[in-house]
Design a protein that fits this description.
Elements lengths: L2 E3 L11 E2 L15 E4 L3 E5 L3 E3 L2 E4 L6 E4 L5 E4 L2 E4 L3 E9 L2 E10 L16 E6 L2 H6 L15 E6 L3 E3 L17 E5 L7 E5 L4 H16 L4 E8 L6 E5 L11 E4 L9 E3 L8 E6 L4 H5 L10 E8 L6 E11 L3
C-alpha cells in the first residue's frame, strides 16, 4: 500500500420515540402524547445558560428533564447551564415519549489572557498537542508520542486525505486559523490515516508497551482525550494501539452513525464548528485491551488510527490528542 506522509499543522435530528424503560412514567393527561424540542443541538459557554423549549400535547402533560452528564451541563425545566467543557445529551420525557438535544459546552469566545493551558491528569502522553503546551506542562510528561518524522510518522493511506484549509481557533485558543490537524477526504471512496511507530523504533516501542501495560493494570485511572470539530454530518472512526482499525471491532469508537455498528462506542457531537471534547477512561475497553500483545522486534505499530466516511470533501479537524493518568 502506498504511504503518503502528510502532517498538517495548519490547518438528533429531533427524535421522538419510546422512552427508556428505566424511567418512571411522568403523570399527565391520558391520551396520545407528542413531544418535540426547538433544538436538536446547542452550544453554551461555561457558566452561561441556553434554553431548550419543549412542545407537548395534550396540554398539561408533564415534561421532565435529565442531563446525561451533570458534571458538564445541568438542566432545570429546559434551562441548560454549562458547568465544564465537553458534551452532554439533554433528554426530555413526556408520557411514553422522549426527545433529546446534544449540548456542547465551550470555554468562551476570547483567547486566554496569557495563561498556560493545563493538560488534564497527573501524567500525560501526547499524540498531537501543541508543542509549547507540552513544554509548559513538562513536569508531568510521561513520554511524547507526537510525530517527529524520524521514528514516529503520520501516514495518509493511498492519498485518501488532502490538506484542508483551517479556520477558527485551535482547541487551546493559542492559534487562530491553524494549530490543529485539518484533513479533507479526496476522491478515493474511502479514507484513513495512522500515527505510526516504525519497526526500528526501539525506545518508542518500549515506552508504548510500558504505557499499555500500565493501562491494563489500572484502566480506570487512564483516560484518552481528544477534541473534534465539524460543520458537516459525515462519520468518523478512531482506534488506539492497532486494536479495532478498519472494520474490526476492538478499542474503537465512532463519531456519528456511519461506523457505529463496527465500534464499541458512538459519540454525538454538535456540528456548528465549535470544538467538542471526547474523553473516556480505558475501563470502557477492558476486553480488547486484554488481547494486546507487546510490540516485538521487527514490528511497527499504528498507535492511533482514523477513518472518515468516503465522501469527497468530508472534513476532519482534530486537536488535543493525549492519554493522561489520574492518580486519585
Amino acid at each position: 500500500m502506498k504511504k503518503l506522509l502528510i502532517f498538517a499543522l495548519a490547518g438528533l435530528a429531533l427524535v421522538a420515540c419510546k422512552k427508556n424503560d428505566s424511567k418512571s412514567e411522568p403523570s399527565g393527561p391520558i391520551g396520545e402524547v407528542t413531544l418535540s424540542l426547538d433544538k436538536s443541538q446547542a452550544s453554551v459557554k461555561v457558566g452561561e445558560t441556553v434554553t431548550i423549549n419543549a412542545t407537548v400535547s395534550p396540554a398539561g402533560t408533564v415534561v421532565t428533564w435529565e442531563s446525561s452528564a451533570p458534571a458538564i451541563a445541568t438542566v432545570n425545566n429546559g434551562v441548560v447551564t454549562g458547568v465544564a467543557k465537553g458534551n452532554a445529551i439533554i433528554n426530555a420525557y413526556a408520557g411514553d415519549k422522549y426527545a433529546r438535544c446534544i449540548v456542547n459546552v465551550t470555554e468562551g469566545s476570547t483567547p486566554p489572557s496569557g495563561e498556560t493551558p493545563k493538560l488534564l491528569g497527573d501524567m500525560f502522553w501526547p499524540i498531537y498537542v501543541d508543542g509549547e503546551i507540552v513544554e509548559q506542562n513538562a513536569s508531568k510528561l510521561g513520554y511524547n508520542f507526537g510525530v517527529n518524522n524520524t521514528d514516529r510518522n503520520l501516514y495518509i493511506w493511498e492519498g485518501t486525505y488532502g490538506g484542508g484549509t483551517p479556520s477558527g481557533w485551535n482547541y487551546y485558543r493559542t492559534q487562530s486559523g491553524g494549530g490543529f490537524l485539518n484533513f479533507v477526504v479526496t476522491d478515493k471512496g474511502w479514507s484513513g490515516l495512522g500515527f505510526n511507530i516504525k519497526s526500528e523504533s526501539v525506545e518508542s516501542k518500549a515506552k508504548m508497551n510500558e504505557l499499555i501495560a500500565a493501562i491494563k493494570a489500572e484502566p480506570e485511572k487512564y483516560h484518552f482525550h481528544m477534541a473534534i470539530k465539524s460543520t458537516d454530518n459525515y462519520g468518523h472512526y478512531f482506534s488506539l494501539f492497532g486494536l479495532g482499525a478498519g472494520d474490526a471491532n476492538g478499542l474503537k469508537w465512532a463519531v456519528g452513525d456511519k461506523y457505529a455498528d463496527v465500534s464499541m462506542y458512538k459519540y454525538d457531537i454538535v456540528r456548528d464548528g465549535s470544538w467538542n471534547v471526547i474523553d473516556f477512561s480505558f475501563d470502557k475497553f477492558i476486553v480488547p485491551l486484554s488481547t494486546f500483545e507487546p510490540i516485538g522486534d521487527g514490528q511497527g505499530m499504528n498507535y492511533f488510527v482514523v477513518g472518515t466516511e468516503g465522501v469527497q470533501g468530508a472534513m476532519l479537524c482534530l486537536d488535543a490528542l493525549y492519554i493522561y493518568k489520574l492518580n486519585n
